[in-house]
Backbone:
């Protein structure tokens, strides 16, 4: 039915099967959209956020998707600037994942604000000293970059590519992609960093506050580094999932191993920096404000030292080591474990930097505050996931996302034909 | 002409030994500033009270128990070094809140605010409140609203303004009479309401004002912590979370040591040094 | 001509480009954001000229002067009035939120008549005619004494006007709701003679011994007391609080004497005994006093420090030391009245405390207790009473107090009509179910309420009263204040609804009834009546807004009659069984009497007092057993059961649990009503013989996890 | 290159691309697209510029005509009617009581407007619901005392020559924002020629910057 | 964001921030403009399609 749109030579499931999948995920999407409209029309009272929890679940989701979406900029940086040519086999997919992550992030921000129609004030009336302003500017610009990076892939659709102008446009954009990728890397560096800065500059919140370099707290650099480190993990994870669902090998082992190796070294170096930062914070920064480390991890029903240990050791050191070690990296099982742990680790880090901050009492007579999100928050947080699945499904079906697909599945196809 | 005079630095000192926790300041503030209310206000985490009275105890058992009530308006932080870098002002992405260098008052402009709530996260005093709901008054009750303070709409942050409109009105009066504002002409609603007379408000920069005389703010940075300026040279006076460098303009006063200690966080043994330190910088004065 | 896809594409692109190059996009973006800044459903208060008007608040007996800020005549804010002799510029949260009462959702907007179970709107003419007709029939039947009146206040022209109506009608059955004022009057009557008031000169005392009085939480004139306490701190005058929980007053005190609840009188008598033995106060010194020897003998024998220790839990040595400290102070004063001192009080306790003052020679001394005469500034013309009135008014009262009246009515009935003014007995009195049952025995109930409260809901006809902001009235200070100030409450705004001044309603009613009653009420309106009867002080009253009748100690030492205590009255028993003693707790931020709290006041209340729809009970963690902070628990007493939340509080005596008073209202104001339980539902009245007071200071209770 | 030709014959394709490739054979289809494009562009462009501003604002007439010129001649200045109160606040548009200080129950002239004033407002004791051209939104605090009093500014600087008008122009209200058109200015882009053409925050800020060297702090003008 | 915005100031903070911002925007804008124009040129000059 839609054969004309499917890339030449590629095997895809039947259109009805495809639509059934889309409808099922679409239902979840609609649920999220319904919750989104509730938040827009009835206001943020639809959430369980409160004056202690001004940032809550979906801001965590926002930071988490941006972190894991960091795979796009980092892979792009490696491919186009450092000319790691092997990564051409996964760059398209990394860009799509990044596109999904960043469009979701922008959507979440649009739901999150109390006055969506005034959202543009952040640009127009920008306070350049606010980390959030930097986030907004760089995020939107980088989203434009991702769109630019995504366009050639879309234009390579079999039908679109027949249009000479589109064909040329895609070709020319490929030609100058390095410029876009460089700009994207520049923008990414700042918005990933300023997301870290959002928490790090809050000198009224000892749990969040970090000293730093010039105007940038250490969390600024840690966030950028961690996004670059864990982003590829997420790209690999989504690739793996896509391979499982499609039942096809889509990216060659060589590429996967290379990206995993790079990620492993990034994680390892990041986690060393993170450990140093944590130690300095715990032994120097925090005591200067009159706090002990234990203050942040006791006297409450949820946040214990477990969260620190899980984030740093289990989901930081462990995946780092697993990925720098050749044997564990090339073993699919241990590699998958490592990338899953890595993704959890970076999400946990964002959780801590968004939610634990709000829960920790600062005034000596204040108490811990914990919060449970409402269904509307959960639905709007799941919304991007559903949207992402649909977009990946559509892109995979109609666009030549994986250059190696045909080659890697030749024998299988041949076998099937026999 | 008005701008060129020496800048004011309006501030407050609250005598916690006089405060009875009666709540008159909270209500006076709500009535003065058109603060809305809703049916269930027992969840204090979404209940808008620009002035909030915290209750703390010394943790001992009856009859040794002691209570202290801490009225907490917006602290109008001057920020590290008192350069106007308050925790909230510095983070607002849309410049909906600023630091008035002429008064030391931290503003909040509801029509500019787009409700990102970053300022609330940055404020350790929970002095900022979000309008989760549209404000709604029972039929007819909107008749008592004051035109001097703009009612807020859903989706924006609000907070204590030190009753800035009272300053504006006092200033207009002074302008037509071609003179300066007197100390008692500009007083916040909570100050005037307090039946115990626990709140004193005025210009911390003006030695003739009572608040200055009680607080005796140290013009020099605290030698123990250079982030801290304007520390009180009165040993009974302290500020909340002074060590974070927020440099608040709301001072508290108590004879009770455990109350003064509760104003900030101290590591084991630190308090003993700090409590005797008040006089240390008095050599400047 | 072929219209194809390309044409549509052209159309679309052209339109988009055209719009993009016009101001539409920019303007709509900007204007839509401005729209959010001026949502039509967000009110915009009208601006105008600012004026200030002065009046007096009559929400509570405190009678503070208030300044009302108006914009173009529209009241927007109430503040304390500077230089007013009672509150000197201060105000309490209830007074400041006064404007919320003006537009309260529970306001009664027109006269109402009950038909079946529903209220029906009627006109004022109809309402007055209906009441006049029904009362006329009662008079015709020759039983005018079967009209009752329950009123909240005993002073001022409105009280006298109602009393005059009852007289002219021919009924002695007027009952005043218990208040600190009435309890003090009862004490003075028992000790010093009828028609006396007691005033405590806290401003000048250097040693205040408070027997549980919540001096800064609504006792007496709340603002005056808070200011007295602040000046006490400055003067370094001492406050010793006898209490079983750390009230805010206890917290501000220099010393707390922890007593078992309900044994305050015993401690006071124990202190008296110490004074008589250790301080060598010669009974002969008490000139002109009655039964002083009998009292002295009894108290020295029955209230030895050891015995008192056993009863109260206060160490004998501490009792002796306290007594000596009290007598040695320059200007000591002992203050009675647990909490606000209105309900749950016993005459024995008030008398014991006042006796302590008498023994210490503190009567009519600066910084002591003033035994004052009535605030005598009103001159009503002589009442015209016909034969029916003379006969009826001469009959005996049905009961000695409003509590006894409830008993009598519930058992035997006895009233055919009842006026209720300024009172909400169906909420305020202990065991409101019984009060409601008693009310149901009365055929015809006329309420003069401003709000559809628990009692108004059970009335047959409502003649809605304008509230204090809408009416003229003289307001006399009282409530334990050591001075007498008459203030003038003035209308700050025209009545918002179709309500009338209750004085006007009463005059119209009297005139509708005709005959001698009409002659007694021959005024054009209440306003002219007030001008006439208060003529003595009217010029100053209307000019300055207040008149200070008296603020010095009365001359001489009044005689004390010790007979009541000498007879050895027994302490009231605590009702029921249980591990805990439940006591009501008065909170400044919650109105406790007939006036419900405002939305603002309720908003300020801590989540340790109200949590959602639950009342939170205070309990010392040491005696909480398996219950945890924040648990929902079932509280059971002999009178009833309620679901409550547990709130740990180190500051309450182990074994005692405290429940906030002023919650559990049931009427149409979602901001105030439907929150928590009415503690009076759980505490049964224990009527004290001899005084008729409900002396139930608490009740035995059990708590179990829900 | 056969691909292109095929596409061109098949029809679908991008208009812009086809424009550059205008071979005579597909002139018809392409021309139509261009015509549609141009037509739609012109209609939308012109309505955006001409119709939209008209639609955006509603025109309301004042209750009756007011002759500022005449009144100003009688009283000699603006302050007689638009005065500062003793407390320094600005009285704004005079209320009925103020008008009645000169006017009486009897019409003072023979104009229809005077008759409307007397019959509909004076006789019924009703305030005249004037529509205020210079009405600022609720969030604005503006001290006339500080500007006309202390600084001695002329009314004209902000309000223009309204005092010299002899008839009341219609009041134009933005249908979305509810603002008077005088705030944004007559020009749809908000471009101004005179100091009184616009009354936006930027105008306040500009003047403050010029005179005081600083745009001022938020609370100076906001409440 | 623009020099005519209320918050705009000619100071170092704005110079760095908006310098970076407008720089990035110009790169993206210039890049895209180049691509589109070049594609249009290529299409007209029949150079497309043969490269793949």
Residues:
């Amino acid at each position: 039915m839609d054969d004309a749109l499917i890339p030449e030579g590629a095997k895809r499931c039947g259109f009805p099967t495809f639509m059934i999948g889309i409808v099922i995920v679409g239902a979840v999407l609609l649920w999220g959209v319904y919750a989104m409209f509730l938040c827009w029309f009835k206001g943020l009272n639809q959430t369980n956020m409160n004056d202690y929890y001004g940032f809550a679940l979906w801001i965590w989701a926002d930071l988490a998707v941006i972190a894991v979406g960091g795979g796009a900029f980092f892979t792009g940086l490696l491919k186009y600037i450092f000319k790691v040519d092997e990564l051409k086999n996964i760059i398209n997919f990394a860009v799509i994942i990044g596109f999904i992550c960043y469009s979701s992030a922008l959507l979440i921000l649009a739901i999150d604000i109390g006055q969506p129609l005034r959202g543009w004030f952040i640009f127009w009336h920008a306070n350049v000293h606010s980390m959030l302003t930097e986030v907004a500017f760089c995020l939107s610009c980088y989203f434009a970059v991702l769109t630019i990076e995504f366009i050639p892939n879309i234009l390579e659709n079999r039908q679109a590519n027949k249009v000479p102008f589109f064909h040329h446009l895609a070709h020319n954009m490929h030609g100058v992609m390095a410029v876009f990728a460089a700009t994207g890397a520049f923008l990414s560096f700042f918005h990933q960093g300023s997301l870290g800065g959002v928490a790090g500059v809050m000198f009224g919140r000892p749990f969040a506050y970090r000293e730093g370099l010039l105007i940038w707290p250490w969390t600024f650099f840690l966030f950028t580094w961690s996004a670059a480190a864990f982003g590829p993990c997420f790209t690999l994870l989504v690739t793996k999932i896509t391979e499982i669902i499609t039942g096809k090998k889509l990216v060659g082992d060589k590429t996967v191993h290379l990206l995993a190796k790079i990620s492993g070294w990034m994680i390892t170096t990041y986690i060393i920096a993170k450990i140093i930062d944590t130690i300095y914070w715990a032994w120097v920064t925090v005591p200067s404000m009159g706090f002990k480390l234990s203050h942040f991890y006791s006297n409450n029903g949820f946040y214990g030292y477990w969260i620190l240990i899980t984030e740093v050791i289990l989901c930081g050191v462990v995946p780092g080591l697993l990925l720098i070690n050749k044997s564990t990296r090339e073993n699919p099982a241990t590699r998958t474990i490592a990338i899953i742990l890595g993704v959890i680790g970076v999400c946990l880090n964002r959780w801590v930097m968004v939610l634990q901050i709000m829960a920790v009492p600062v005034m000596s007579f204040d108490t811990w505050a914990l919060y449970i999100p409402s269904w509307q928050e959960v639905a709007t947080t799941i919304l991007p996931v559903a949207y992402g699945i649909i977009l990946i499904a559509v892109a995979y079906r109609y666009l030549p996302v994986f250059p190696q697909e045909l080659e890697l599945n030749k024998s299988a196809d041949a076998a099937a034909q026999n | 002409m008005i701008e060129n005079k020496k800048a004011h630095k309006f501030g407050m000192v609250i005598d916690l030994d006089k405060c009875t926790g009666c709540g008159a300041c909270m209500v006076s503030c709500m009535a003065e500033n058109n603060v809305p209310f809703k049916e269930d206000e027992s969840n204090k985490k979404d209940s808008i009270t620009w002035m909030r009275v915290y209750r703390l105890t010394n943790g001992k058992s009856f009859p040794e128990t002691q209570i202290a009530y801490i009225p907490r308006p917006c602290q109008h932080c001057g920020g590290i070094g008192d350069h106007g870098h308050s925790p909230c002002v510095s983070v607002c992405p849309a410049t909906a809140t600023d630091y008035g260098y002429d008064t030391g008052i931290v503003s909040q402009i509801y029509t500019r605010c787009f409700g990102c709530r970053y300022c609330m996260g940055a404020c350790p005093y929970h002095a900022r409140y979000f309008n989760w709901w549209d404000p709604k008054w029972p039929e007819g009750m909107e008749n008592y609203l004051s035109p001097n303070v703009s009612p807020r709409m859903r989706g924006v942050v609000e907070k204590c303004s030190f009753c800035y409109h009272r300053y504006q009105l006092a200033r207009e009066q002074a302008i037509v009479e071609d003179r300066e504002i007197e100390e008692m002409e500009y007083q916040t609603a909570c100050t005037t309401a307090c039946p115990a007379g626990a709140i004193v408000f005025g210009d911390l920069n003006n030695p003739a004002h009572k608040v200055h005389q009680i607080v005796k703010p140290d013009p020099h940075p605290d030698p123990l912590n250079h982030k801290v300026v304007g520390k009180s040279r009165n040993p009974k006076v302290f500020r909340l979370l002074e060590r974070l460098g927020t440099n608040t303009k709301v001072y508290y006063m108590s004879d009770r040591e455990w109350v003064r200690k509760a104003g900030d966080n101290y590591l084991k043994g630190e308090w003993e040094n700090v409590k005797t330190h008040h006089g240390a910088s008095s050599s400047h004065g | 001509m072929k219209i194809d896809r390309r044409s549509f594409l052209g159309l679309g692109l052209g339109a988009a480009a055209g719009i993009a190059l016009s101001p539409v996009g920019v303007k709509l973006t900007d204007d839509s954001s401005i729209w959010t800044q001026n949502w039509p459903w967000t009110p915009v208060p009208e601006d105008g000229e600012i004026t200030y008007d002065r009046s007096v608040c009559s929400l509570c007996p405190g009678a503070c002067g208030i300044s009302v800020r108006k914009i173009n005549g529209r009241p927007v804010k109430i503040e304390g009035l500077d230089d007013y002799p009672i509150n000197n510029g201060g105000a309490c949260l209830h007074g400041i939120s006064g404007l919320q009462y003006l537009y309260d959702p529970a306001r009664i907007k027109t006269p109402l008549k009950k038909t079946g179970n529903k209220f029906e709107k009627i006109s004022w003419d109809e309402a007055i005619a209906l009441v006049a007709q029904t009362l006329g029939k009662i008079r015709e039947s020759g039983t005018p004494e079967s009209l009752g009146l329950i009123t909240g206040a005993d002073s001022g022209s409105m009280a006298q006007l109602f009393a005059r109506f009852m007289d002219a009608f021919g009924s002695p059955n007027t009952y005043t709701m218990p208040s600190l004022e009435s309890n003090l009057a009862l004490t003075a009557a028992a000790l010093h003679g009828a028609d006396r008031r007691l005033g405590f000169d806290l401003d000048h005392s250097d040693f205040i011994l408070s027997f549980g009085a919540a001096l800064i939480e609504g006792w007496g004139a709340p603002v005056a007391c808070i200011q007295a306490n602040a000046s006490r701190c400055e003067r370094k005058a001492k406050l010793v609080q006898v209490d079983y929980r750390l009230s805010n007053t206890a917290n501000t005190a220099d010393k707390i004497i922890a007593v078992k609840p309900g044994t305050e009188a015993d401690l006071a008598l124990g202190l008296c005994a110490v004074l008589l033995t250790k301080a060598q106060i010669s009974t002969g010194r008490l000139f002109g006093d009655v039964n002083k020897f009998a009292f002295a003998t009894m108290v020295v024998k029955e209230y030895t420090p050891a015995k008192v220790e056993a009863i109260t839990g206060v160490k004998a040595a501490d009792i002796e030391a306290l007594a000596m400290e009290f007598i040695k102070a320059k200007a000591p004063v002992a203050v009675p009245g647990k909490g606000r001192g209105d309900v749950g009080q016993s005459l024995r306790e008030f008398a014991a405390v006042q006796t302590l003052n008498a023994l210490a020679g503190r009567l009519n001394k600066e910084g002591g207790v003033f035994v004052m005469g009535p605030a005598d500034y009103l001159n009503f013309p002589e009442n015209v009473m016909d034969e029916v009135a003379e006969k009826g008014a001469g009959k005996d009262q049905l009961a000695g107090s409003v509590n006894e009246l409830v008993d009598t009515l519930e058992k035997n009935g006895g009233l055919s009509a009842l006026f209720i003014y300024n009172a909400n007995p169906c909420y305020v009195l202990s065991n409101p179910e019984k009060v409601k049952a008693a009310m149901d025995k009365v055929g015809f109930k006329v309420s003069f309420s401003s709000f559809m409260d628990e009692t108004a809901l059970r009335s047959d006809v409502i003649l809605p009263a304008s509230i204090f902001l809408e009416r003229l009235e003289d307001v006399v200070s009282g409530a334990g204040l050591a001075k007498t100030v008459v203030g003038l409450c003035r209308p700050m705004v025209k009545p918002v609804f179709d309500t009338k001044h209750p004085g006007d309603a009463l005059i119209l009613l009297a005139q509708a009834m005709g005959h001698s009653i009409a002659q007694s009420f021959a005024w054009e309106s209440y306003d002219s009546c007030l001008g006439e009867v208060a003529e003595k002080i009217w010029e100053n009253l209307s000019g300055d807004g207040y008149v200070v009748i008296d603020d010095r100690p009365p001359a001489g030492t009044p005689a004390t009659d010790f007979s009541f205590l000498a007879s050895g009255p027994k302490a009231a028993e605590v009702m029921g069984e249980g591990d805990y003693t439940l006591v009501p707790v008065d909170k400044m931020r919650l109105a406790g009497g007939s006036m419900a709290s405002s939305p603002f006041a309720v908003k300020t209340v801590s989540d340790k007092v109200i949590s959602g729809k639950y009342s939170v009970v205070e309990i010392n963690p040491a005696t909480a057993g398996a219950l945890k902070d924040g648990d929902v628990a079932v509280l059971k007493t002999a009178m009833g059961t309620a679901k409550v939340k547990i709130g740990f509080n180190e500051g309450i005596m182990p074994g005692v649990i405290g429940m906030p008073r002023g919650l559990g209202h049931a009427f149409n104001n979602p901001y105030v009503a439907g929150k928590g339980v009415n503690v009076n539902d759980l505490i049964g009245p224990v009527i004290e013989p001899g005084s008729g007071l409900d002396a139930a200071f608490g009740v035995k209770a059990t708590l179990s996890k829900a | 290159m056969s691909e292109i030709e095929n596409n061109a014959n098949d029809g679908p394709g991008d208009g812009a691309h086809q424009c550059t490739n205008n071979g005579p054979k597909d002139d018809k289809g392409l021309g139509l697209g261009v015509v549609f494009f141009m037509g739609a562009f012109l209609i939308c462009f012109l309505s955006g510029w001409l119709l939209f501003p008209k639609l955006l604002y509603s025109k309301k007439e004042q209750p009756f005509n007011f002759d500022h010129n005449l009144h100003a001649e009688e009283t000699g200045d603006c302050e007689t009617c638009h005065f500062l109160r003793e407390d320094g606040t600005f009285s704004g548009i005079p209320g009925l009581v103020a008008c009645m200080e000169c006017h009486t129950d009897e019409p003072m002239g023979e104009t229809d407007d005077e008759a409307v004033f007397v019959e509909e407002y004076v006789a019924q004791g009703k305030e005249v619901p004037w529509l205020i051209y210079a009405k600022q939104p609720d969030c604005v605090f503006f001290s006339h005392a500080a500007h006309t009093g202390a600084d001695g500014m002329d009314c004209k600087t902000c309000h223009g020559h309204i005092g010299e008008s002899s008839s009341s122009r219609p009041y134009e209200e933005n249908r979305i924002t509810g603002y008077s058109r005088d705030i944004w200015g007559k020009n749809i882009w908000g471009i101004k020629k005179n100091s009184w053409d616009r009354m936006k925050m930027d105008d306040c800020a500009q003047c403050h910057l010029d005179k005081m060297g600083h745009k001022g702090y938020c609370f100076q003008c906001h409440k | 964001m623009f020099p005519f915005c209320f918050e705009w100031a000619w100071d170092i903070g704005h110079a760095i921030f908006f310098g970076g911002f407008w720089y990035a925007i110009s790169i993206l804008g210039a890049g895209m403009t180049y691509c589109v124009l070049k594609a249009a040129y290529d299409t007209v000059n029949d150079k497309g399609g043969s490269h793949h």
Notes: Strands of chain B lie at 10-15, 52-57, 67-72, 99-100, 105-106, 129-130, 157-158, 199-203, 237-239, 250-253. Chain B is about 15% helix and 15% strand. Residues 279-285 of chain B have pLDDT under 50 and may be disordered.
